[in-house]
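Exercise (ungraded).
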Amino acid sequence: MTNTSISPADLYTDAFVWDAHAGVFPDPAIDLNLLNSWRDCGVNYLSINVGFDVMDWQQTLKTLASYRHWLLSQTEHFALVGTLEDITLATQQGKLAVSFDIEGMNALNGDINMLSIYHALGVRQMLFAYNLNNDAAGGCHDSDIGLTDFGRDIVHEMNRLGIIVDCSHASLHTTLDIMAESSKPVVFSHSNPVSIWQHQRNILNQQIKACAQTGGVIGINGMGIFLGENDVSTRTVLKHICYVTELVGAEHVGFGFDYTPNVEVDIGIILSSRPDYWPAGQRYDTPEIKHAEPSQLPEIVEGLIGCGFDENEIRGFLGENFRRVASLSWT
Ligand SMILES: [Zn+2]
């Protein structure tokens, strides 16, 4: 049964689309023409990571420098953005708006002043830990510690600067501390409900509810091992969306596909170089891990209409919910 008059295809074409996190391995040498994968399927804004705790902060800066250079030289189809006004303009001009995120506070090298450097260079979303504990926070594959004093100072400084506070990859206690501490909405940019699929990277009802209470958004992750048994079907993606929506409401759900187009990066080599970050028993050794892709979005919209969601709710999932968070966080 449907309660919307607009066709799924027209709704998707007309809607503003926000992908809160790309899963591309951050590397200064990577060819960012891969961003066309998002532009070609109608995504309007993408956050792409320039670093994570596995690499040192110098490599994060090198990646930032390289990505900035590429984006600033490709202004016909892409726009490096820092504000919602920038995104609106890019969308009107048919460009993919891009800003950066960093997965874990090792990128600060223990110095909180690095936050303003990253902000000035285009970072608009930061995660506290990447799977393992660091000097700021606990990771989801480590002992469940809370935020450290340094981590608390980071939350306040991110709120002040205008960087979206992101709880994905962090431990239970750290996420609850972050959400209690932040004066701005908090997101899980790419995390799925553990009630639908058991995985340490997925999140509990308690975390989903606390996130919604901050006014935040949970971005559904497209990685097959976080959705199900390496299952990337639209049906399964819909299951995750419906679950979170039933729990906290449609205004708290979005997409963070964590998607990587086919690139010449041997993921096996990366994983085996630091097995501590991707521990055994968590299915990271699944052969040929699949991804639900942003190009599935038109089919997902069709499914959402079939589930009975109205046009406003679907526009919220596609982009307006994350845009609301940015409007409250980036100022
Ligand atoms: Zn991630």
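Further reading is listed at the end of the chapter. For now, observe: Residues 103, 168-169, 190, 258 surround zinc ion (CB under 6 Å). The longest helix spans residues 311-329.
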